[in-house]
Amino acid sequence: MIPLPDVFRCLFQTFDGSAVKEFRKFLSSQSVIKKWLITADFCVRDNEKSNSAFAFTVVPYDAYLAEMQEEIRQALPKDIKKTKEISQCGLDLLVNPRRFHFAFIFDHPPDLFSAPNRDARLEVARNSLQQAIDQLAEIERPADQLKRLKRLKQQSLAKGFNVNLLSDLTLLGLLFSFVTLVLQRERENELIGWFPDRDNMTTWEDGVVWDIALESLAGLGEKFSIAMPSRPICVGAPPEGDVEALWFDDLVRLPDYIAGLFASWNFEKNLIDVKPKYKQLATGVAAVATNLAVFKLRYDAAFQASRLVFSPEQ
After folding, report:
1. Rounded Cα gap, residues 142 and 168, in angstroms
2. What is the C-alpha to C-alpha distance for residues 292 and 259, in angstroms, rounded to an integer?
3. CA atoms within a 13 Å half-sphere pointing along the CA-CB vector of 199
4. 239 vs 169, 283, 293, CA distance in Å?
């Protein structure tokens, strides 16, 4: 695996090239806010899409939750996959500078455990899990965290272990960590919450993704001398049982539309899905938004990052 400090150093350098100016302008308009929600959605390894995409929306906790939910419901009443066309109100909501979107695009599925063959790849994944277990044991983390990781390590001994899923959930946690560290680097905050869409990445082995992600966040924060929020990260993990809706589902609809757009856009050929909603998002959001930072990444045997910028003329 590529050392995480190297990955994050590259991400910070790319972000600081130009996107940081727009993000700081966003923060200056929210000068008194110390509590934030980071909502996330993703489209990964979908053979019908051009890319894998992760999207995150930084939401200031500047209103009552019910007010934020109602605003989103009125403008974007359904998830993007259930929507044929988007109202102007919906487009306006997505480009509203009150919130800021990050998108990370991979034209090839990311592979954090890249190796010459499946057996070698599986061994890299197992070693990564063992390293995480050893680190948590050394710093005496709670027993339930160790138990989840040990169960996952035991599962990894099977030949059919889902290395892709482990790679994807690890990446989700790392990208949550990056957005959080950017926010903390620019301003010391009281509270930051992580609120992802439901997916097997977030539910596998009782949410082991958060054990991995929060340790990565703490370690990388220390490495880059970025303080953590004064209160622990709050994670909106799905409840147990078959629950149709989560209280933060409306908030996740913002990154849902961003991820849906960039998963459906073939940048090599500059072609986009023919459905009207994607053209609406390309021209009404990507081409004009000042609250959007889009990065094209490669993450396998090597790590590369570049920023994508858009204009109405494209």
Report:
1. 24
2. 12
3. 19
4. 18, 37, 31
CA distances from 173 to 98, 210, 217, 235 (A): 25, 7, 8, 11
The label of the residue with tokens 């790392």 reads 174
What is the pTM (predicted TM-score) of this model?
Answer: 0.96
Instruction: Give CA–CA dist 174/159, Å, rounded.
Output: 26
What are the C-alpha distances in Å from 56 to residues 64, 116, 201, 232, 252? 21, 32, 15, 19, 9
Mean pLDDT by 10 residues, the chain (314 residues): 95 98 97 97 96 98 95 97 97 98 96 95 96 87 90 95 97 98 97 94 92 94 97 80 74 98 95 95 98 98 96 76
Alpha-carbon gap, residue 287 to 314, rounded angstroms: 8
> Nearest CA to 21 among 226, 290, 305?
290
Question: Contacts by 203-207 with C-beta closer than 8 Å and gap 24+?
Answer: 203/238, 204/152, 204/165, 204/169, 205/148, 205/151, 205/152, 205/155, 206/148, 207/148, 207/235, 207/237, 207/238
